[in-house]
Amino acid sequence: MRVSKRATSAIALSAAAALVASGCSSGDGDGDAAASKDGSIVIHGVQPENPLVPSNTTETGGGKIIDWMWTGLVEYPNDGGAPRNALAESINTTDSKVFTIKIKKGTKFHDGTEVKAKNFVDAWNWAAYSPNGAQNGSFFSDIAGFDKTYTSDPDGEGPKKAPAPTAEKLSGLKVIDDQTFEVTLAAPTAVFPTKLGYSAFMPLPDVFFTQKPEEFGKNPIGNGPVKFVSWDDNVLIKLTRFDDYNLRDTMKVKDVDVKLYQDETAAYNDLLANNLDFLESIPTSALAGDKWKTDLGERGLSTTTPTTGLIAFPIYDKRFQNPKLRRAVSLSIDRQEITDKIFFGTRKPADSWANPLTPGAKPGNCTACKFDKAEAQRLLAEAGGFTGEMVFYYNTDSSHKDWMDAVAQQVKTNLGIEARAEGMPTFAVFRQQVNAHKMTGPYRAAWQQDYPDVENWINPLYVTGGSSNDGLYSNPQVDALAKAAGAAPSLEASHEQFAKAVELVDQDVPSIPVYFYGQQSGHSEKVKKLELNNVGELDITSVEL
Q1: GO molecular function of the protein, one example (predicted)?
Q2: Which residues of the chain have pLDDT under 50?
């Protein structure tokens, strides 16, 4: 779910097939270099869940900031093409198990210190050591020694505790010199280089290891084209151009204010008044009758992105542990009606577990996504029914009320369950409840591709202990197939193994794919040029005024 920058040099390895292009957009005319140089922009945002540490951020509110503030080894082109080198000079392997990674010399962190190989190795070791609590820790499971540094609670939220790791560092990481490090994986993994543009793999400056992670995250130091200035909770995050940035994509404007909204309609009104320079997602209230097109004209943008809207189940709650109940709920939802009546045709009904824009994704493999009222009622009866109220939760600072109300009403009408939707005030509060495993009903979720491979739609979401497996779903057969997929000799073979894992996920229904995103965005009159990246977010280095 990450920002990706424009890139031109090829990665040293063959990588995943290109995505279907999600499109770029621009304003009505050429930008003025002089106006841009000292100019500023205001962008819509939401309060991040956690302090800004790359390996501890799994949501888009904080993820966008991190991706603007950091540059990784690899980047993903805006047109959806294959991953390409960014900070990496080269990534070489002869067996897809041992990788020699050489980074470009002379790049800097925002505190002026040089980015070295050890900054990657130290950051990855910190994230992979489970007592540090990094939410993205499982992304390092490919690397040799992970089974010694990362342990998990054997009974979920039960009385047992995770055993202490027997090692503090990954045995598969080794610094060769200031610009070179070696990564040894537990088994050959063809997709590994594709992952390296995701924010979990960003480097950390030496100062990170001298303070508490939350202290660093409130005043973060990255190595990307913008640096941190200040953060006023629930109000504003200020960023400014990092003038010592010397990689390809440098900023054309000077200052970026990320205004943290609690209401998307308020953000839309600011956009219309030219008080907001970019709004990524137009609220559903403005989609009816193409009102947004009339309001914005050429300032309106439309694209498709590898993102899926979901309903997730808190499987740690005994009421939701029967897969027949979960499948019944899924089959009771008329996705076509929701995309037509709520989103006015700007979304598509989901019919697969991975978004079809993703390399390796197979279309139409979600049999639980069909609308079948009779079968839903039969499965509910076999599951023993549902006692009490089923509350569907969502965050109210984005436009989710209408479609979540519609889902709850369909469940109520088609299954006879007392169902309703209930909002939580902010995305940050909502995510805190999700991560604390305190949700008492199904809840809104979404998955925005982190890197272009179907693996990203399986391992984080449905493998036991996955970084975003928030409902604590676990199926040992899925885990085994995913592990076999990771160790497959080629991407094609890997994708076939993941397809088998998905067949089991489809039977268990740990979540409910509801719709594939179509994205409507808008910019102010002063923005003359901009590009959207491969997941539909603003490429801030492209903005010209």
Answers
A1: peptide transmembrane transporter activity
A2: 1-29
